[in-house]
Amino acid sequence: MESYWARPLPAFGDPNARVLIVGLAPAAHGGNRTGRVFTGDESGNFLFSALFAAGLANRPASVRANDGLLLSGALVTAACRCAPPDNRPTPGEFAACRPFLVRELRLLAPGGAIVALGALAFSNVLAALAEAGASIARPKPRFAHGARFSIGGFTVFGSYHPSQQNTFTGRLTQRMLRAVLKRAVRAIS
Q: Can you state the angle between helices 42-53 and 174-188, rounded to 10 degrees?
C-alpha cells in the first residue's frame, strides 16, 4: 500500500461556483496520490478537457495540485472523500461523507446546476439534497446520461462517469460530456 493511501480530499474549484460537479471518489493513484480530486489520471484529463471546452477551466489538463489549473464558476467534488477499497465505496462510506456534500450543496446559490458523474454519484446527490431539505419526487428521479431534473431550486444533470471503462469503450465521449456541461452552464445563465 502506498504512503498516500486513504487521505480524504476536499472539493476543488471556485468557492462562488454556480455549477457543482460530483464524482464518485478519488482515484487510488490519481487524486488520492496528487491530493486534488480528478487530478493526475485519465478520468481527470477527460473531465478537465470537457470543463475547459465548456468555459469552466483555464486549461484542459491537470497533472498535480498547484499546476495552475483554475476553475471559474465550477466546484468539483466527490460523494466519497477517500479512495475506497476495490474502487467501490460502501453505503457506510457514502453516509459518513454525505455531510461534506450537503455543506457544498448549501454553498451553491439557488438556481445553480449540479452535474452528477455516474449513477452512484447521482444517487448520493439525491440523498444529500434530501438531507439539505429538498423534496425528492416519488418515484425518485432515475439516472441516465443527459437526464435533467429540477430539485430543490437546482437543476440536476446526470452524466456517465469519465472513467476509462466508459471513455475507452465509447460509452462516454468528449462530445457527450461537453454537451451536458454546456447545458449546465446554460441552466445557470
A: 50
